[in-house]
Design brief:
heterodimer, A: alpha/beta, Peroxisomal Thiolase, Chain A, domain 1, two-stranded antiparallel ribbon, 12 helices, 19% strand, globular, B: mainly beta, 10 strands, 40% strand, disordered N terminus
């Protein structure tokens, strides 16, 4: 069984495009990735499409109406915020299984503004603000406060995550925002759900990203100079934990996935040169330094204090700007992360380039829960 | 919850809040006879050990400790803020999320592991489309014994009551 390579990958600049449809956004990213690979629709054997909010809308097929209806297999995936990574992984598996040689994975989402979560109460009366909060900022605040409880993590340390990621995004023209946000600005922003202020919540944006995956045989035929090898592709669901019913456990699901991914790739966290992880809220990023083994348990606060996770630090995290500033179009996020890592592995990240990056890791969490991790390696 | 021949009383806000006609309200969980895992609400099979059909209804404790929380400042229209969204581990098993009341919504006033108790009162005046009133559960500091125990108040008479 040969390896799988990413031979073309791209994303649209994240933003708000109410005049466009979801299939149009997805088609734009698909064509960009195909151009990056030097391939056309006639080379593709399958399309794996990730989209959450129109999950029953056959978005993949509608994308093909925009770029070419060649009759290929289409799979539409929805897996909360792990949707894009799931589509990418399904594409990877189709090649790993030697069913296809050349496939396309697309992640796309159009978002409204405002809070997510907390409204699905079933019958009776609204439960939000009555039985605590089900909004995403509160859910991830509670997960962060669990870390504060266990390790003394402070509001300021959580806020520093947002300062770092916003700084990174000033070097990423495809990020929603390119704005420096000093610590006092982050901490004094509107409090949404303590300890997450507005600037510590991911940005709701429209976005699309796509990747062309090929078999080893096809990659060698096309040339490996800009190819990226998929060293690990892992998807987990949340294992049983005692509080999972009321407090989604984003830790165990990530730890299971990280263990499997490092094992599959035959590498450890110390071998990784950059990480794009699921900073849907500033509180979440802190948890995942430990969940991904970037530091020991209890050291995440020190990691952010010491700048180890900033560009130029020991293990740069979210040099794209992350979900906090690049933006978080749910179904697109898991492929946009892969675009970011591939761009560094190809040495094409300009100002924000992580020097001599060879191995990178992407991580997403879909609440409910799913975790997708990919480890990618420069092929040339 | 209404009894034959009587005007319908307030309804439980969730199916696992029980309002016995002749006793105090309580939260119901289910315990796995195979491994002892405790679940809030009901379920058929155990997601911890996989045992089938060994679930038994159990009355969850009204005492617990604060495990984690957030102070919520932004919510949907009609939801009063700020409030404390609390995650509480109950004595003997079961973890529940709810509002922590009678504590100032200030991180300096909220302590991890603070003892709390479950109290039952009107669902903040919220009514459904048919005008039904609901009884909800809340957490309050366990040191405060002034409102402990007793019968469910009639929210139509005293919508602000904290009587449990």
């Amino acid at each position: 069984m040969g390896d799988v390579y990413v031979i073309g990958v791209d994303m649209i600049k994240f933003g708000r495009f109410p005049e466009k449809t979801v299939p149009q956004l997805g088609a734009t990213a698909a064509l960009m990735a195909m151009d990056d690979a030097g391939l056309t629709i006639h080379d593709l054997q399958g399309l794996y499409c990730g989209n959450l909010f129109q999950a029953s809308g056959m978005v993949g097929q509608k994308i093909l109406r925009e770029i070419g209806q060649t009759g290929i297999a289409v799979v539409n995936c929805a897996n909360a915020c792990a949707t894009g990574a799931t589509a990418f992984r399904e594409a990877w598996m189709s090649i790993k299984a030697e069913v296809f040689d050349v496939v396309l994975a697309v992640g796309v989402e159009q978002m409204g503004k405002g809070l997510l979560g907390g409204r699905s109460g079933g019958s009776g009366v609204l439960k939000e603000g009555l039985l605590g909060s089900g909004t995403m900022p509160a859910v991830f605040a509670e997960a962060g406060m669990e870390h504060a409880r266990n390790h003394g993590t402070t509001f300021e340390q959580f806020a520093k995550v947002s300062v770092k990621n916003h700084h990174h995004s000033t070097m990423n023209p495809k990020a929603m925002y390119q704005i420096e946000t000093p610590l006092e600005t982050v901490m004094n922003a509107e409090m949404i759900s303590y300890p997450n202020t507005k600037l510590m919540c991911s940005v709701n944006v429209d976005g699309a990203a796509a990747a062309v995956l090929v078999s080893e045989r096809k990659a060698r035929e096309m040339g490996l100079s800009r190819a990226v090898k998929v060293r690990a592709s892992v998807l987990t669901s949340d294992p049983f934990s005692v509080r999972d019913l009321v407090m989604p456990d984003v830790n165990a699901v990530t730890r299971c996935a990280a263990d499997q991914a490092y094992h599959m790739a035959g590498v450890g966290p110390d071998d990784i040169d950059l990480v794009e992880l699921h900073d849907c809220f500033a509180t979440a990023e802190i948890l995942h330094y430990e969940n991904l083994g970037l530091c020991k348990d209890g050291e995440a606060g020190r990691m952010i204090d010491d700048g180890e996770v900033a560009l130029g630090g020991r293990i740069p995290v979210n040099v794209s700007g992350g979900l906090l500033s690049k933006g978080h179009p749910l179904g697109a996020t898991g492929i946009a992360n892969i675009y970011e890592v591939c761009t560094h592995l190809r040495g094409e990240a300009d100002q924000r380039q992580v020097p001599d990056a060879r191995l990178g890791l992407t991580h997403v969490i879909g609440l409910g829960s799913a975790c997708g991790i990919h480890i990618l390696e420069r092929a040339a | 919850m209404s009894q034959q021949g009587e005007v319908a009383g307030p309804l439980p806000v969730v199916s696992w809040l029980k309002l016995p006609a002749d006793g105090e309200p309580y939260l119901e969980g289910h315990t796995c006879g195979g491994c002892g895992a405790v679940y809030l609400g009901s379920r058929e099979n155990c997601s911890r050990c996989g045992a089938r059909g060994k679930m038994a209804a159990t009355r969850l404790s009204s005492k617990g400790k604060l495990y984690s929380y957030s102070i919520v400042y932004r919510s949907y229209p009609g939801v009063e803020v700020p409030y404390i969204s609390a995650i509480v581990d109950l004595e003997g098993g079961g973890t529940v999320k709810g509002n922590l009341i009678h504590v100032e919504p200030d991180p300096d006033k909220v302590a991890f592991d603070m003892p709390v108790e479950v109290v039952f009162q009107d669902a903040l005046g919220r009514v459904d489309e048919e005008g039904n009133h609901y009884i909800s559960y809340f957490f309050q500091p366990a040191e405060d014994h002034s409102t402990r125990s007793g019968r469910v108040a009639n929210p139509a008479c005293d919508p602000g009551t904290t009587t449990a």
